[in-house]
Amino acid sequence: MSDKSHDPNQMTGAAMIVRALIDHGVTDIFGYPGGAVLPIYDEIFQQSEVQHILVRHEQGAGHAAEGYARSTGKPGVALVTSGPGATNMVTPLTDALMDSIPLVCISGQVPTHLIGNDAFQECDTVGITRPCTKHNWLVRDVNDLAKVLHEAFYVATSGRPGPVLVDVPKDVQFATGTYHPPRKSDVHRSYAPRVKGDATQIRKAVALLANAKRPVIYSGGGVINSGPEATKLLRELVEVTGFPITSTLMGLGAYPASGKNWLGMLGMHGTYEANMTMHDCDVMLCVGARFDDRITGRVDAFSPGSKKIHIDIDPSSINKNIRVDVPIIGDCGNILGDILQVFKAEAKKPDVKSWWQQIAQWRARNSLYYKKSNDVILPQHAIQSLFEATRGKDTYITTEVGQHQMWAAQFYGFEEPHRWMTSGGLGTMGYGLPAAVGVQVAHPDSLVIDIAGDASVQMTMQEMSTAVQYELPIKIFILNNQYMGMVRQWQQLLHGNRLSHSYSEALPDFVKLAEAYGAVGLQVHKPGDLDGAIQEMISVKRPVLFDCRVAALENCFPMIPSGKAHNEMLLPEQANDEATAKAFAGGKALV
Amino acid sequence: MNQPASAYFIEDRHDPNETHTLAVLVQNEPGVLARVIGLFSGRGYNIESLTVSETEAQKHLSRITIVTTGTPMVIAQIKNQLDRMIPVYQVVDMTQTKRSIERELAMVKVRGQGEHRVEALRLADAFRARVIDATTESFVFEITGNTDKINQYIDLMRPLGLVEVSRTGVAAIGRGPEGM
Ligand SMILES: Cc1ncc(C[n+]2csc(CCOP(=O)(O)OP(=O)(O)O)c2C)c(N)n1
Ligand SMILES: [Mg+2]
What ipTM was estimated for this complex? Predict the structure, then answer.
């Protein structure tokens, strides 16, 4: 008896949770208390190694943890109570799953003997979150807890990263058991993600690259997830080959936007030159991207004449949407290193001069063109001004979802990875503000800006209160067009301009709202006042809600209409009513 | 191709469907079957038959045998999606190996009199089905075989007074000395 009481590894489940966080180097977690996690909160109260950020809604905790993870490369951690606490986490977990973000969520559960009894604040958390986590666990025995927690961190951060959830009943939190530090045997023997690429496939890939006449590199979020080494190697590969490079929404920043081989983002709202290069290329190197439907356009007309190389750590990404010729399964960084090595030893720089000439012609179409105005702020112009004002500063950008998100991707130039946090796969309105909270917690001295929409920002506005409490000087830069602009655009293009419920009537006064939270509110209407107001926003060392009133009916172009291929983009100068109607003509009568 | 007004690209896919039998070796832990079934329902894959049982108790290993249909690309997806689940050790496409034996067991209850009883017994004999329960007006037959054979037997029993059927679903194993 007395032996055990002196064993430092004997502790309660609640203490093990905090101890495991410390052992995994966690310094900040985001959470919200409730009955089923009170023992854990009691442990948090009695230590100072892990800082807990109290959010205002569990969804905010999840997105904040995502922002934290994306901007640091470390796992984000969220702590929520049973029942409604856990169900409020479903959106961020799904978001993190879609965008491969490492997240560890710990949820409280009703005591084991009550599970299945419809107890107060009981829900089937592991059942509900099974399809929206990479893996999840219900821990019924305190002596399994250490192993499960260590495995959870390993699963979240290894292979293709993703969210995991550990559900801990309250009696397990109270019970005393044996803790052990992380060790190899904590992990399922059945889980062994492949890291190193197959040498034969790598040689095949190099042979294709070396003989390419019209090559393109198409990179994605996997490069950023893989870590700084992968980014470095990607840049080196572009340098060594001289190939053009484009990227998905998730991959922005892996190659610098100011780099001379940069084509801009590809896909539905990508640049003309990026999409045409993809369409007409003869060799495509896809690194850490997944041929998602916003990228490919019409699948049967996607880059019809190319040989495709696909590097991905997840075998299920291979041949999911697009059949590829040379799949290479493994970690991007590892494989890029091998490709470079073989390329440098055996190949010489391919001659792609005439390809670049062709690309220059596409580029000359100036597909991001928009008409500036002296009377009203164009949203594109607002992003450009923001970019100019923050250029060279230590800046992180998050976004909500909608037109403003696409304009941010098109007009804000990212030079480094981990600087761009957006909800790509799930498209979660309300992601950006809490994500900015998480980013600012990780980088207290950096400039953190959420490029927001007037509708999205209201979904998680309550986290302003968190920002004020923890003195997190996040800047919420709202492109306020008074519409759910992206919805309105689709309704205009596809549904006869019947603007069903896409107008935000009764918008709050964002300036007063900011003040009510104890933050700073700014508003600007005139293009001439924009730069000054942005400077003011940057210099204020407090949270700011910036109400940037922009042109209400501006559309986001260029655009690949549904059912069309990359070479059938609608460019801004063509987007008059008639051309638009024709581009979108299909089964339904369109105006 | 006619496109309805949609934010999604709608494709017609024309590849023919194939039927495959997959053997999936998993860690026997709570929720593992729910994960596998959830994958199929969540991603819209078909399950024609599914059987599961612990096969190596000491190592906590279970074997799930799934018969599914889909285009070759979908079948490949299913295998990859299964394989990446944390508690899954191995996925073997028994159909692709072309060296597998598949069996199902069915219990078939038939009720009737006179000629029908005689006929049912005669057919049972031809199919090597055994009588495992009998009353003066009914039989329960036990029959083992591949899915086609069992379907055929059940069809034959129908006019003879078929009452109900209970089937185990398909189990599969490779031929030859090697294990999975
Ligand atoms: C949670 C959620 N609900 C609905 C949608 C569908 N949706 C996509 S964009 C959008 C409008 C966004 O409006 P706003 O935030 O004002 O951005 P804007 O497009 O005007 O820039 C909506 C409703 C979504 N992406 N997420
Ligand atoms: Mg809007």
Answer: 0.90
